[in-house]
Amino acid sequence: MDYGIVNEEAWEEIESFIVGERFDVSSTTQLPPDSLRIQEALTKQINRFQEYVNTSLEALEAANMKQLEELKHRLETLDSVKTLNLKKIFHSLGTLVSTIYLKLDRRRQTFESLKTAQLKQLTLRTEAFERTKDLKLLQFKQRLEEFEPVLSLKFQKLIHRLKFLKAKNEILLYLKQQRGNFPLDCEEVKREGYNLSTTYRIKANSAPKAIEVLCDLKKKGGGWTYILRWFHVSQFGHGFDEYKKGFGELSGEFWLGLDNIHHLTGYEDNELLVELVVGDGTSVFTHYDRFRVGNEDDDYTITVSGYSGTAGDSSSSESNTKFSRQKNDLDNWWSGRCVVELGFAFLLQFEVVSTSQRPHDSVDCEQTLMKQSEYFQENFNAKLKVLEAANTLQLERLVHRLEILSSTNNLKLEQLLHLLKIVDSKNDLLSNYVKQQTEANMPRNCKEVKERSYPIKPDFAPKVTRVRCELEKQGGGWTYILNRFDGSQSFDFDMDVYKNGFGTLSGEFWLGLDNIHYLTGYEANELLVELVDWNGTSVFAHYDRFRVGSGDEDYIMTVSGYKSTAGDCFSYNDNTKFSTKKIDLDQWSSGSCAQKHGASWWFKKCHNSLLTGKYLKGDVPKEQQSKIMHWSTFRGNSYSLKEARMMVRPRIEPNN
Question: Domain Fibrinogen C-terminal, which positions (predicted)?
Fold first, then answer.
């Protein structure tokens, strides 16, 4: 018989048949009195049915076990497929991340190359602009110099009144005088680039002070210093003291002074140029290769040699002579025999450049004087009238030309000023651009530099800040935010000072709350605290997390992740605001921690550390406890430490 698997309906039918109301095998009253045979047959039928039920249950259990095995196998297959799919997904994600990083690196390289090319192009443009600017300025300078030939030495007084023609030289000279740096002589004035023959202040090596002299920067190579100038009716018959100190005006006739001539010529080789102009306008000159005047102790002895020129050698015979004095039996001049005073009609212009010399004839002095007097009597009146008329006409023409030049120069000066304003504006734009490019390439912290003191620009900081870096301890890359080691710097300040910082990087200092915020407020940072006691024992406190908020957040400080040897005193101050004596932001409801302990710090209720406290030495009395620079877990709150440093650096997050 195929018993198969009995379903629920068959079981219900069997149950109703066996135990139902229709038939009860245990009740004999339901059977006919004479039906024992039927009862036995029925019992056998029930036994066979029981065997059928048992067999069906065994088959059902076997089928269920088979289904369970199949289900388990399917689950294992599903797990393997799931694991394989996850591996494929992770592989795809890794490939995608690598592709993204590769593209970002290529874009970064492209940006760097583009930035380098732009900087090179900017440099080339800057150089071209500088060359163009220098060329335009040179052209303008040359145009101004085109008007200088008309400004002769005869009209120095008029030129002196027209200040605008030498305003450039006067400004440059004024700036140089403000520095206290004067040229040695007119030759050095020329070497410094000046080309206008006018007055300058010089200071010879041996001179006690600077003096104003008249320089000729064009005649015969330029660089000549006037020591005598005589071109009009005047007397040089002064006493020896006047000849010693000098007299006259540089804009007219003058004598530079024996002391000044000695300082100019007494200590190095000098040349002498004597220029003479007679009444008919004829000009001659005398040049000597060597010229020297001694000091007062040497009676201003003159040494002269090496003649050349067109006027004749009248001074070589007077070499090694002393300066004569009127009230002593000699006149005021260098002479071995006698001295004559030349009349003003004979020499309408008598200019001596770089030192002084006076013509001296080899004939008898008295005959020379007589000849000169006769010449004066015969020619002076006629020559004077002709010269006055000629000079009047020349002056009128010169004034007219100078008026034209003045208006023209004023116009050109206005044009130059306008051009200079344009140049200045372009320079400002260029400087700002270069500054922006420079700041963009600046390191953000000490981890990106290789020097102990360096300018950095943290992200979001408005300007560049110079900081002190520690490049060796604990892996280097640390930026100092506090440094104390000798008590030379007071730390008793209010919020405004702590906000901006104080002290010097070479000594004790506080970097400033704003700077600390820019360093730590926008990326994860570490904190390193170094402490040293008066026995030289050094300990460290290292924190994995350190941040200072902005001024709007009251410079709130968060710190965590302690490790090292100093003991953890600073975690107590986590999530506290910076307080000062006048600004109480601590969490102590009974008073002000800053006022109680006389310092500014991140106070809670109140502190276990105070690195801005008073700088004392070692153990302190009870009234100073907790007010000193201390770290409670290192030597306690009644011991003032010798050194304390706080340093930060960006934290490198470990790879997962």
Answer: 177-338, 437-652
